[in-house]
Design goal:
There is one protein chain. The protein is mainly alpha-helical. It contains 2 helices and no strands. The longest helix is centred in the C-terminal third of the chain and has 29 residues.
Amino acid sequence: MTDRNVEAVRQLLLDRSEVGIKKYGTTTDRNDLGLYQWLNHALMESLDHCVYLKRAISSYRDWE
C-alpha cells in the first residue's frame, strides 16, 4: 500500500533537488558550508515560507 500524499511530496523533493543541482551545480552533500551557514540558509527559507503563508492567508480572507 502506498500513500499518494507521501508519494506526491517525495516527487516534489526529487524535482526540487534537480532544480537545485542545475542551479548550483552541487547537492546538499557539499561540505564547503559550515553549520552556521546551513542554519542561516534554513532560516532564510523559513522566512520566505512565512511570507508566502501570510500572502496566501491575506488572499483567502479576500475571498470570504
